[in-house]
Amino acid sequence: MVKRRKLNSAVQIILGFLTIILIGTFLLALPISSKDGQWFSFIDSLLTSTSAVCVTGLSVVDTAVHFSLFGQIVLLLLIQIGGLGFITLTSLVFLLIKKRITYEERVTIQESLNQDNVQGIVKLVRNIIILVFVTEFIGAVALAPSMITTFGWSNGIFKSIFMSISAFCNAGFDIMGTTENVFVSLSGFASNVFIILPIMFLIIIGGIGYVVLFDIGGKFKKKKMSLHSKVTLISVAVLIFGSAFLFAVLEWNNPETIGNMTVWEKILNSLFCSVTPRTAGFFTVDYSKLSQGSIVLTCILMFIGGGSSSTAGGIKITTFLVLLLAIFRTTNTSGDVTFCKRKITNKIIQKSIRVVCIALILIVLSTLIICLVEGNNVTAIEVVFETISAISTVGLSLGITANLSIISKLILVLLMFVGRVGAITLTVAMGSKIGSSKQDIQYPDAKIMVG
Q1: C-alpha triplet 351, 21, 105: angle, nearest 5°
Q2: What is the number of other CB atoms lying within 10 angstroms of the CB of residue 408?
Q3: What is the pLDDT of residues 203-237, one digit of tens each?
Q4: With helix as H, strand as E and coil as C, how does 247-281 read?
Q5: SS3 62
Q6: Are the CB atoms for 385 and 19 separated by under 8 Å?
Q7: In whole angstroms, what is the distance from residue 261 CA to residue 107 CA?
Q8: CA separation, residue 141 to residues 55, 134, 152 (Å)
Q9: Which of 114, 154, 226, 292 has its CA 20 to 30 A from that of 434?
Q10: For residue range 387-400, what is the model confidence (pLDDT) as tens digits?
């Protein structure tokens, strides 16, 4: 009798996301999903489905203009599944049908949520699901008055729900567009504080990380907040206000972005420009009109991303901090770094370096290939921006996505998939090997000069 071989956790996560993407591709390609009743091309359906499941936001068509109500609902479900995560959603089904979650399944959940152990993992999943739906409901209620006033009752309520889920999941998809072949996102509401602020808060809450949010909740019960949560919150605040200040300085007199706005509107939109690259994809100004300095700043913010165990992408805030500490602080004989009277082990440092290096290598290779394929149809900065946006699951673009060739679109699909799944699987799988090399044979030191 042949013993059935179980798939490891990483493979289960990859196959789960891949299955949802393929189902979404088929549904979005159907004539019923398009307002014109025509079949949507396979490659564009694949890119859109991947973008939704990987909560990115890159698209070749305006969601509001191209997709029918059925197509928009399909997109919304894909975004929700992608935001929750396939494994978390599966756990929800198990909880609803009262199926016992085995130890192996708990390990898979642990890896999908990037947790250290399986203790209390089922309770964590239950709390995450409650937090997600409650936050999205509150967000929809906050958006509803302005949406209903602008679009009417039924359309306004649906847009409120869609935008709330998309914002909290850091997806970047919107259904606000009204002009053919023009991506408007939230540019028509740049001065509407009752839409911009709720969406900003949803993006921030979704991008902080579930563990940090529960830590904040525990603070009201006089529980001590973890170092991870403190570091994340401080880093988020510094990035938001620091980058908002830089955006304001760089764009203050740019008439094609915020130059013609009032002072209050300039401040509001500068804040929004600092929040959305990490990693939501909404925009209130045309990113193709940004100054070169603002484009570079946006690339940096997209690359850093949000908090660990969140709906955000990027290398993550804490990964970036650990990398900075490893560069600028002296390590001890074991390769560890001391920070805030705590030891950051060499294992964590090596894992952070791997995350950053994998992302950089993929960005460089993808940029080279797309530049070769597209030739003079695109500029290098446009391609770099697009690849960082894809692998960081942001969804911002300088306007080249729709005009890319099939090969370039497939590269973006791969980058989005790696950006959403890779941070969970590749780094966990590779990180588990760190520090576990064989000690049976001691080799002499390599005499290699660096720097």
Answers
A1: 55
A2: 24
A3: 999 888 888 888 887 666 667 777 888 888 988 99
A4: HHHHHCCCCCCCCCCCHHHHHHHHHHHHHCCCCCC
A5: coil
A6: no
A7: 51
A8: 22, 11, 15
A9: 226
A10: 999 999 898 988 89
